[in-house]
Each structure stands twice: as C-alpha cells, then as structure tokens.
Please model this.
Amino acid sequence: MNKIEHIGIAVRDLQESNKLFAKLLGTPSYKIEKVESEGVSTSFFKIGDVKIELLEATREDSPIAKFIEKRGEGIHHIAYDVDDIKDEVDRLKVEGFNVINDVPKQGADNKKVVFLHPKSTNGILVELCEERKDEKN
Ligand code: ZN
Model:
C-alpha cells in the first residue's frame, strides 16, 4: 500500500458538515459526488496529500444510514491507495483478511475500490483504492 488516500467520515447532513469542515480545515470542498449504487452522497476536501471524504446516506438502506444508526456520526473507513488492486486483494486474502467484495467496484472520485470487513481489521472498515485508468471505463 502506498499511503492513506482518504479518511471517510459518516455524517447526517452533508450540507451542514460541508460548512463545518470548510471552517475546520480552512478550505472548501472541491467535489461533491453521488454514488447511487452505494446509496451515498460524498464531499471531498484536500489537505496536503490526504483527502477527507464526507458521506451522507441517500436512502434508508444505505450502509451509511445503518452505520449512523448503530454507531452515530464519525470515522467510517480509512482508504489506502494501491497500485494494483487485484494483486493487493490476492495478497490480503492469503494473509487471512476478510474481503467484502472480491471484484473491485466503482467508487467515488474515479477510483476502483475493494472493502475489507472491519471484523478482520480491528473494527475499522478498510477501503483499498486504485486510480481508475480511462481505458477500463
Ligand atoms: Zn472512501
């Protein structure tokens, strides 16, 4: 893994949290994006080399809605940048990690993403992300 790509934070109200994080970080959100397949609206902030991703549920059965119901607002996942997501998934499976989706799916911010179950990673959902190259679209 190369670095932390972003930290995902579950919020109840994206508009309100956008204002809050703009004040906190001293910089506005640079991108708002809906990922319909995941039932989330996202907003991205950049601080140095790392991003903060705010996530709001767009429907009741969204994983974010379920997360907030159980645990309240807060850190939802940590995303690590990888060069080759398939290699990394193979490596982590051999190491015994519980991979939620073997086949990478389309994430926000032009990424291919795979999640590891928090039960195998000390309670924090882990996202692997690989920058999407155009020819795969
Ligand atoms: Zn993410």
In short: Residues 6, 8, 53, 77, 79, 127 surround zinc ion (CB under 6 Å). Strands lie at 3-10, 31-35, 40-47, 50-57, 74-81, 105-107, 111-116, 125-131.
